[in-house]
Automatic annotation (TrEMBL):
<protein>
    <submittedName>
        <fullName>SapC family protein</fullName>
    </submittedName>
</protein>
<dbReference type="Pfam" id="PF07277">
    <property type="entry name" value="SapC"/>
</dbReference>
<dbReference type="InterPro" id="IPR010836">
    <property type="entry name" value="SapC"/>
</dbReference>
Length: 254
């Protein structure tokens, strides 16, 4: 678990950030968390599914970026190729943390031992006058917005779960060599249940701004075909012939 230190110009005036810090973060992430406000944009490039946080059991909205752990098919030769960049990638390696001076407020924290930080190379975090750089100012605005986005996303996740709209699925991968591994622990929207909801419930979902993300999540599953093409372009990976989505019988969405 990373240890965060409050970012201050007094302590970190000479700290610099690697220009490819976002890529360093993303290239090993086969799933990336997103906010509900990001679903429609993210769905244009990646499949979006729910997973459970292993630490607290809460639902997490995630963009699915690779069939293999520790890899991300949208990072190609050090370049991010998706049409949208998730917020947690834009803000890395800066995080919100409880202020050490006031437990009721937040401040920006960093893991100052992370290799993206240096005192000799990369972009300055603070200007010579100790003011935040343009990049840090942008990150600060995104992190401040994240407070409300996190709350909104948790409310969305809980409401969708309460309506029984989560369906556990396995992704069965058929490789050209005959091997057939299965990816489990993923949940998507149960389209059949969504269609049987009352008009009153559907209108409520629309009023809350939840209906569009639900539909975008369903459509995003077609992006699995994009992942197969990206996967098969990499000669070091075991080629995929096809995939199949199966309803999981060993997982509960409650």
């Amino acid at each position: 678990m990373k240890k965060l230190t409050e970012l201050t110009p007094q302590q970190h005036q000479h700290l610099r950030l690697a220009n490819d810090s976002a890529i360093q973060f993303a290239h090993q992430q086969n799933i990336m968390s997103v906010h509900v406000s990001e679903v429609s944009q993210t769905a244009c490039s990646m499949p979006i599914v729910f997973v459970r946080d292993s630490n607290n059991g809460q639902w997490v909205l995630t963009a699915f970026t690779s069939f293999d752990q520790g890899s991300n098919l949208f990072v190609e030769q050090g370049i991010w190729t998706a049409s949208y960049t998730p917020t947690n990638m834009q803000t890395f390696p800066f995080f919100l943390m409880t202020s050490p001076d006031n437990p009721q407020s937040y401040t920006i924290g960093i893991d100052q031992d992370h290799p993206v930080f240096s005192t000799t190379a990369g972009q300055a975090i603070f200007e010579a006058n100790s003011k935040a750089s343009l990049h840090l100012s942008k990150v600060k605005a995104l992190l401040e917005a994240d407070i409300n986005n996190d709350i909104h996303t948790q409310q969305f996740n809980q409401h969708i779960s309460k309506l029984g709209l989560l369906r556990p699925i396995n992704i069965v991968i058929q490789h050209q060599d005959g091997t057939s591994p299965s990816l489990s622990g993923l949940y998507t929207i149960d389209e059949d249940k969504l269609q049987t909801l009352s008009q009153e419930t559907l209108f409520e979902l629309h009023q809350q701004g939840y209906l569009a993300p639900l539909q975008a999540m369903l459509l995003s599953l077609f992006q699995l075909n994009v992942l197969i093409k990206k996967h098969n372009k990499i000669s070091a990976l075991n080629p995929i012939k096809s995939i199949k989505l199966e309803v999981s019988k060993n997982s509960a969405a409650a």
